[in-house]
Structures are given as structure tokens and as C-alpha cells.
Amino acid sequence: MPHLILVRHGQSEWNLEKRFTGWVDVDLTGKGKLEACKSGEYIKELNLNIDYFYSSFQLRAINTLKLIQDTLRNKKKPIKAWQLNERHYGVLTGLNKDEMRIKLGEDKIHEFRRSWDIKPEPLNKNNPYHPININTYKAVPRDKIPDTESLKDTFERVIKYYISNIQDKLLDNKNILISAHGNSIK
Questions:
Q1: Each residue's pLDDT tens digit, 123-166
Q2: Burial (CB count within 10 angstroms: exposed 0-12, middle 13-18, buried 19+), residue 90
Q3: Among this protein's residues, is 9 annotated catalytic?
Q4: Of residues 35, 41, 86, 106, which has the active-site annotation?
Q5: Which of 9, 88, 130, 181 is catalytic?
């Protein structure tokens, strides 16, 4: 029986600061690195041979995966896919979650975060946090880079990639580990 292991990245710098991160490329904190190593230890206890490793394009997921692979002593080259990126939070990107709860209200923030098809206003393309202004995404077709996303948008992006690139490997009895983000692995 094949295994699909989904790992949410360890604590990032912006998680610590309670900021909406989305597609901004921030790294792990010390705690996040320890969480990744601990995940690696748990996975090691399963005594599974992982055939394929995947991560999003984002540093926090890539470095989580690297630490897990180091713990597993597995040097297989991971497959990086921007389609596994976190949800894009639009104009909320970079803003403090607690401050936005005060400004917009708890109900509105909850609606943005948990509603299936409601998304924040788009992030201005001139904003330095917009993915078109981040070097990590230069190879992503510009028409595929969102200005904002709902959970539905994120799901559709991820599931399309999963069906095209991962599902057949599982059906072929391959074990897969994916390091990604809370919304993209839901």
C-alpha cells in the first residue's frame, strides 16, 4: 500500500510575527527548523522508503523538506512545484493578523480565512510582496500568478497539479512526501 505524507512547513518568520504570508518567500525560524527535524524523526520511525519528494516553490517548505531529508538521510532530488504554494492573501499580505482583526473585525477575518469562495481584495502589482516582484517566481508564467485567492482557487490549483503529477505515482505504489502549506495541503 502506498503512503502519501503531507507536512506543513515549520514555523516561519512571518508565522512568528502573526503576518499573512501567502506567496511571500520567508524562511523558517529556529523553532520551525526544530519542528522540521522532529517531523523527520517521526517519518523515520515509519521505516518507509520515500520514492518522491515534493515541495512548493517557497523557502519555508523547501527548507522543511531539506531538513526532513537530512534526517532521513535521503538525498533524492525534490520536485518543486509553484502549484503547491500557499494561498495568496491579496491585500492582507504582510499585514499583522491581530491588527487586521481589530481593524476589520473577527468575523471578516474569519470569512477571508475560512470561506470557500470569498477572497481578499487583490494585491496591487506594484506592491513589493506581489509575486511578480519576487525573484522566486520569475519562471512561473505571469498569467498563472494570482493577485489574491480564495480557498477554492487554491484547491483548484493544487488538485489539478496533484491529478496530473502525483496521483499516478500513488496508484503505482510509490511513497510520496509533500512539504507545503496549511491551505495547500488541506
A1: 999 999 999 999 999 999 999 999 999 999 999 999 999 999 99
A2: buried
A3: yes
A4: 86
A5: 9
